[in-house]
Amino acid sequence: MKKELILLIFLLSFVCSEAQVGGQLDNTWTWMATVQRKDGIQVPFRLERKEERGKTVLYVVNAKERIQITNVETAGDSLFFAMPAFESSFRLKTLANGDMRGIYIKGTSGATQYWPVHAYANIEDDFTAKSNAKSNISGRWDVSITRANGSVRKAVGIFEQKGNKITGSFLTPSADYRYLDGIVTGDSLKLSGFDGDNIHLFEARIENDSIISSGVFYNGYSGQETWTAKKNNAVALPEVADPTRLRPGETHLNFTFNDLNGKPVSINDERFKNKVVVIQLMGSWCANCLDETKFLAGYYNKHPKGVEIIALAYELTTDISRSQKSVSKFQQLFHVQYPMLITGVAAGDDKKTEKTLPQLTPIRSFPTTIFIDKKGNVREIYTDFYGPASGEYFIESKNKFYKTVDRLLNER
After folding, report:
1. Radius of gyration of the CA atoms of the chain, in A
2. Could you tell me if residue 133 is inside a domain?
3. Per-residue b or e along 368-388, where b marks 16 or more CB atoms closer than 10 Å to that residue's CB
4. Total domain count for the chain?
5. Helix crossing, 320-334 with 287-301: angle to 10°?
């Protein structure tokens, strides 16, 4: 703790100090940026700057994803901005050559994290190829990820490689690792992604077109696992172990929580009667929940007759004010019109299900989506959602949602 405090004081003083030489922000449009983990490993991503309607706008780029950042503040040679979703922000100082250094600040369920940042000016690529790729690993892969305790969890890797460049994602039983991009140089693979919540770096050795070995997965501030993979274009997604379901004898949910304005909303309110109701179990700290919220908000804003949606937020802490502020970023980003309720129970609470929805068996993943028919009966519970980075699986997730809602709407 003392070491982290000293680092924070040093970084803040570095960012806020007067520049000896004026920075070159006006002449800089792209950066290859890195955030540095606790162990010193650096996770790269691309940062772009544009002038739109006379205002500085930044973009964090992950493969096909472009995260727009409009709340950019400058003071002398310093740059300050927060990610549009999640409790994360940057404080950077522009150097004479256009590079930037500073800190990335990330809220967590415990202590706030402070990651050193270095952004290299006018460099577009996250990685530099030192030699031609020896193999092309485009396709689907059967992935085994080994936890620190030695247990193995299965995933599916989907990659698209063109020359040295590679993009893709990893799909677990409940969600995807969102947009990843990187490079294959010789027999070495590097893939990374940064969105303000997920901070991932995958490294490995490509034995040939069918075998990936010696993989290391750097996850977040300090997580580290190993992984291997075998090419298998027919590999199926692993199933969710012990998914959330109704407890025996239960048919209905019964809850009341406050919305973002502190007004109580109940599943038993008149507006939800005789309608199909979709309950989204989510958290504003969850990037996969962000993908689902964007989809649900777009669907709801077309407002199909007879359908309601309610989001139940399980946040990092029980601090209601902090939770309201964080969930409001989701609401504003996607113009969410359906109720977003604060449960007041932390996502990491082992008793969260008993405290909020005791009619269910334990909630194991976010997002989890519950479908209620016009009679108030729980009919389906989906514990997976795959976002746009997953390609065909995103289409399947949406189609499964449409078919379920339409089926329930057509019932008498």
Report:
1. 23
2. no
3. bbbbbbbebebbbbbbbbbbb
4. 3
5. 50
* DSSP states along 320-343: HHHHHHHHHHHHHHHT--S-EEE-
Domain that holds residue 346: 256-410
pLDDT along the chain (412 residues), means of 10: 48 43 59 97 95 91 96 93 97 95 98 97 70 95 97 97 96 96 96 96 97 98 98 94 96 98 98 98 97 97 90 98 98 97 98 98 97 98 97 97 97 90
3-state class (DSSP) for residue 169:
strand
DSSP letter string over 258-308? EETTS-EEETTSGGGTTSEEEEEEE-TT-HHHHHHHHHHHHHHHT--TTEE
Any idea what DSSP says for residue 186? B
Checking phi first, is residue 186 left (phi over 0); if not, alpha (psi -120 to 50) or beta?
A: left
| Same-domain pairing of 400 and 294 | yes
Residue in this structure with the two tokens 């947009």, named with its chain if needed: 179
Paired tokens of 348 = 């990491």
Tokens coding 193: 């992604």
Length of the chain, please? Answer: 412
- The pair of three-digit structure tokens given for residue 208, joined into one six-digit string: 């040939």
Taking the C-alpha atoms of residue 327 and residue 285, their distance in angstroms, rounded to an integer, is 9
**pTM here?**
0.92
CB burial class (10 A; 0-12, 13-18, 19+) of residue 198?
buried
Q: What would the two tokens of residue 242 be? A: 């012990």
Task: Please report, in angstroms and rounded to a whole number, the separation of the first and last CA atoms in the chain.
Answer: 60
Residue 89, both tokens: 């922000």
Q: Is residue 128 part of a domain?
A: no
Q: Are residues 317 and 387 in the same domain?
A: yes
